[in-house]
């Protein structure tokens, strides 16, 4: 694969006194982030539902989407927790005197992440600092996970597709687009789906839970599916995707 050309995106002095700078890289909205004496560049669009990540909190080498709380690894772009399942684009950086150059990272961050509620970010200690080298974001950091994903088990994205078959009988919108699914973990072909309901007294709760369990159990490579209900955080309409809002006429 041919490497993309470097393009100048900003000067270091523009980042002085601030931690983030919105830029355009390869015609994509992006944000430069200085964190822990290192520099990162990521696409400024959450892969869950398009929210800009600019204002998301940065912690332990990850950035959190300010809308529904998905987290992405700053270095690899991997999605580390629900509701996002796809990585964000990251960019290689090169520093030439005061100028910052960038190009799309060609690291293979296209794989869907394996999720775990206790996932921890890749240790930043092994990363080169901007002061030590002229490049950043050059290595792939795999998504951390405390659970093993068995090779014949379905990917999280496929499980989400399956869960989209489960329709809330009151709102007539699938439970994924409603934002009811918080997390999916898989270990040794046993799947645990952590999800919520639109309200603790939702009369359709037992039906939704049973259908969600059936949808996962029916998938090849799944031995057992457990649905864990949680009311924390409580569901709110802001958790819906734009598709779901459109269906419900919410603008
Ligand atoms: S838009 Fe980012 S988590 Fe939903």
TrEMBL record:
**Limits of the Rieske domain:** 6-102
The entry's keywords: 2Fe-2S, Iron, Iron-sulfur, Metal-binding
Q: Which PROSITE patterns match?
A: RIESKE
In its UniProt entry, what is this protein called?
Answer: Ferredoxin CarAc
State where composition is biased (Low complexity): 113-141
Answer whether the UniProt record assigns the keyword Metal-binding to this protein: yes
Report residue spans for region: Disordered: 103-153
Q: Does the keyword Iron-sulfur apply?
A: yes
* GO terms for MF: 2 iron, 2 sulfur cluster binding; metal ion binding
Which organism encodes this protein? Rubinisphaera italica
Q: Which Pfam families match?
A: FeS_assembly_P, Rieske
């Amino acid at each position: 694969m041919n490497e993309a050309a470097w393009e100048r995106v900003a000067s270091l002095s523009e980042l002085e006194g601030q931690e983030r700078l919105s830029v355009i890289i390869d015609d994509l909205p992006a944000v430069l982030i200085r964190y822990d004496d290192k520099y990162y560049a990521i696409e400024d669009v959450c892969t869950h539902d398009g929210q800009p990540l600019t204002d998301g909190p940065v912690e332990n080498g990850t950035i959190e989407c300010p809308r529904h709380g998905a987290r992405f690894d700053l270095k690899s772009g991997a999605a580390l927790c629900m509701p996002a399942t796809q990585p964000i684009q990251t960019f290689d950086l090169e520093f030439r005197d005061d100028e910052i150059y960038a190009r799309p990272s060609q690291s293979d961050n296209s794989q869907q992440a394996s999720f775990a509620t206790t996932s921890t970010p890749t240790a930043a200690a092994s990363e080169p600092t901007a002061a030590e080298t002229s490049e950043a974001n050059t290595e792939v950091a795999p998504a951390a996970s405390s659970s093993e994903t068995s090779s014949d088990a379905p990917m999280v994205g496929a499980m989400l597709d399956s869960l989209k078959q489960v329709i809330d009988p009151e709102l007539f919108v699938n439970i994924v687009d409603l934002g009811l699914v918080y997390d999916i973990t898989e270990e040794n072909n046993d799947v645990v789906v952590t999800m919520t309901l639109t309200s603790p007294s939702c009369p359709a709760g037992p039906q939704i839970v049973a259908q969600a369990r059936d949808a996962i159990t029916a998938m090849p490579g799944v031995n057992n599916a457990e649905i864990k209900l949680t009311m924390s955080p409580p569901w709110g309409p802001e958790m819906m995707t734009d598709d779901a809002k459109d269906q419900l006429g919410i603008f």
